[in-house]
Each structure stands twice: as C-alpha cells, then as structure tokens.
Sequence to fold (539 residues):
Amino acid sequence: MVERVVEQALAKVPADRFATAEEFAAALASAGSARAIALERGRLRRVTRRRVTRRRVMGLIAGLLAVAAGSWWVATRIGGPAIRRFAVLPFDNATADPAQAYLADGVHEALISDLANEGLGVIARTSVVQYQRSAKPVRVIARELGVDALVETSLTRTRDSVTVHARLVDGRTEQYLWSHAYGASLAQVPSLALTVARGIAGAIAPKRMSGIHRAMGQQRPVDPEAYDDYLKGRSYLHRPTPTDLATARDYFERAIARDSSYAPAWAGISEYWTTARQRGYFTPQEATPPSEAAAYKALALDSMLAEPDFALAGAKVYGEWDWQGGEREYRRAIALQPDFAQARAFYAHLLCILHRPREATQQLERVRELDPLDPLLAWINGATLVLLGRSGDAIGLYREALARSPNNPAPAFLLWSALDLGGRFPQADSALQRWAEVSGDSGLASAIARGHRQGGYLGAVRTGADYEAARSHTTFVHAWDIAIWYATARDNADAMTWLERAYTEHDPTMPYLEVHPRFNQLHDDPRFKELVRRMKLPG
Fold:
C-alpha cells in the first residue's frame, strides 16, 4: 500500500501525481500510521503552496517512511489506539454568510449519514449540534460524547464552488491525525458529502471503504437547485413554529417542481405531514394519507432510502394500528440506515406495545449509544422507560432534556406525569406549575392556578382537565391528552369517556392504551377491555 502511494508521488507525468502535499499525506495516512504521519504535518504545510519537485518528494518520503516505520514498531509493541467511535463536529460556516448556514448543516447531516451507513461508529448529528461554535477543548467534547476522536469541519462557498475542509483530531492528545480539503462545483455539491465521507473512512478504517465506493457509483445526477431547495427545507423542518414547518413544505415542493424524480424531497414531504400530525396541526385523517402517498412515491424513486420506511412505519402504527406492518417498516428502515436513532427509538415504543420489553430495552440502549445528547430523543427514551414501568429512571432523562431546552413544554409535561406516576406528589405539583408556565397557554395556566388555590394539587389537575375538555369544543385537542388529565385527577369515569372518544377519532396515541401505566387503574373496567379488543392489542 505504501509502495503504491510512493509510486504515484514519483510518477513521471505530473498529472498522475498527487495535486498537493496535503493529498499525498492523506494517502500515506491511509496506508500507514495516521498518528505518525500527523507529526510531519507542519513540514508538509510549508510546501503546500509551492511546486513539489521530485527531490522534495523523495525527501518527504524518506522522512515519512522513517516515522511510519518507527510508529509501526511502537504500535506492535504496545498497541496503537484504535478509533472505535468518533464524532463529526458541526461545520464552521467559513463563508461568513448566515444565509448559507442551511448548506453547511445539510452537508453535515449527509456526511454523518454516509459514514454511519458504512457501520462506522459515528455519533448522530443531533448530539453534536450543541457544539456549534463551542469554545470547549477537544478533550472535554470527546469525553462528553464518549468518543476517541473528533472531525473538525469547515465549509466555504463562492459564487460557483464549495470547499470543505476536514481534520481528524485525537480526542485524548488533541493531535491532528489527518486533514484534507475537498472542492466541488455547485453541480457536484449533492455528492460532496459522500466524497468527504470516503476520505474520513480512509483515514479511520480503510478496509471499510468498499461500500462508499459502491454508493458513489450508484448516485444519480441531481439538479443542484433542487438539492439546494431540499437542504433549505430540511433546515426549517424541525424548527418550533407552524410557519417554519410550512416553509419547509414550500421548499420541498419547490425541489420537486425542479426535479420530480428527486426522492429525498418526496421523503421530506412525507416527514412534513408526519411532524404536522404529531404536533396536532392536522388530525390523523387529514395527515396520514398524504404522508403515506409521499413516502410511497419516494420509495418508488429510490428503494434504498430509510426515511420513507420510517414515515410508513409511523403511519401504520399510529394511523392504521397495523402492528405487524409497522414493525416490518421499522426493521427495514433500520436495516437500510443502522444509525437511524429516531427509528430505533420509536421501534422501541412499538416493542413495548407488543409486550417485548427485552427487545425494547436493547433498542433503547442502542439509541443512547448512537445519539446520547439529543434533547428530543431524551424525552422519547424517557417515554420508553415509562412504558417499561421505570418511571423513576425516566424522570432523570426528562430533567436532562429540560436542562438543554428549559422552555420545551413536551418534556415538562412528561416530567410532571412521571413524577405523579412515581408517587412524588410535592415534586409533581411543582412540575405541573412549571409546565403551565411554559405551555404557552395563559388560560390553562390561570385555570391550574385557580384550581390549586381551591383544592391543592389534585384540584389543579382537575381544573386543568376541565379546561382542556372545554377548549376541545372550539379547537382541536387530542382526546387522549384529556383522558390523561382525568386519569391523573383520579376521575376514572371521565377518563374512560375520553378514551372512547379517542378511539372514535382514531387518536394517534391510542396504541399505548394497554401499556401506559397512567391507565393501569382502568384495566378492570369492561369498557377498557373492549377498547383493547377492538384495537387488537396483544394485552
């Protein structure tokens, strides 16, 4: 391997040689010891901008091979440090144009996905985004993420090209092990992430590169403007407001208008409808059909995309109550993209619904390995623990999620519910009041405060339940959520009434009916048993 690199460096025809000294070093890093070659990095940089003559190349080869030989001896004697897990830090937008942030974020997301698809131990993007512009030392970030190395990245865009710089850093010593720059025209940007992934994989695990080479050969041409619109859509998709979500849909539709055969844009449309349904912007009857239609369109165009299968899994479990079909789609999504932490997290929920706690726990543990710091997954995983009867453990995850996102009402609500389930009523009382503050509904907050003055904690819960029930007459409120309120208030009769309404409305949360501990007090009610039977739940 080293000999072939040397032969290319000494090729008689200049066009056959390495273009820069940095490229030559990267090739040697894959062939020999990346750690050892990194020690020569400073000397190589000094000649990057000057023509590399044959004599200079020979001198560099001699020095590098000597260092590599010494490194080989040390590695064989004491064992060199392996890079089992690593993280790609968010791109530094070197363009200095905030309007280009979507491009840096999109390439970053695609790069991590391409690396993970090769089975490399890369941390998910949602766990590393918090380190955007972080001043923390490399050692600290590596320790917090539980990784051996970090990849630092930057992106520069000019009028007609994009350049990505990638640098591999040892998480323990903070030494640079490898670096390279990758340039692409705007027309080549859709394949840029895969090109960078090939370089990183070559530096970390050269034997794992075959799949990336195959993927590069299978890529279809993409209209660069359609890709640009798609990335803009992704950048708005998970922002918090309805306007942001609608903007995401607009960009996906613009991408499809430019290139109707671009499968990721159709997958984005499907994810839009799924997200809108989850947030309560549309009823399941309104959102499920277009979500499924877009997912099937995406799969017809590209059967190797994991996101449409994930969307279909959600539609089957939460829209159609088709447990077997949902499991099939979850398993396919995970097979296509093993690092798909969100798919694994919701598959764990389905496994709880199917009374397979051991498998659910395995998926939960894998999610936490892949994406240890994502606030969204923290409370999704907390919900898994609640379904497994481990409310005490869930409380810790909800608190972690709130520490990272203090004004997020979802984990605040779930923390209150878990504290109540665990019998920690004074803490549940405080958590309920805190949730009312961040809920964004001043009427609900006032109702809870009034109920608390009249009847303490349970009085506040009862008043909150009545407020939500009254509000459902003028706006859409999930019947399941109202049933949760009444069950928490220990009003079993009203809880059952709202569960029956949730069944009639095909509420997407009804699949949790038989396994959610909030409704354990209803299990002996004949009406509850009838709902379980109608839904064909395995209880």
Observations:
- Strands lie at 86-88, 92-93, 149-157, 161-170, 176-185.
